[in-house]
Amino acid sequence: MKVSDGGIMIQETSLLAWAKTQEKLSAKQMCVWNLLKSCKFPVTNSEIAKLLGWSINRLTPRIFELRKHGLVVNAGRRKCHVTHNMVMVWQEYDGVR
Is the pTM above the cut of 0.85? Predict the structure, then answer.
């Protein structure tokens, strides 16, 4: 069965899986995931840390955990706006990959 979510058809099983995963996320993981969902383009660890006002050491484990949950994916590499180094960028998994 498909359910309409604001005009987008989503499999009911996908919604159930998403809800189960969301129940398992910590408050810190939810902060990072919500930020990634709101970004219009992939972001670096340093950019996320700066936006959240966190240290990089507080952020990077959350990215790793969200990747393990399948909620965040590597979206390539680009120059970071904070460190000016070429680094990996992250984005919310959109179900397409």
Answer: no
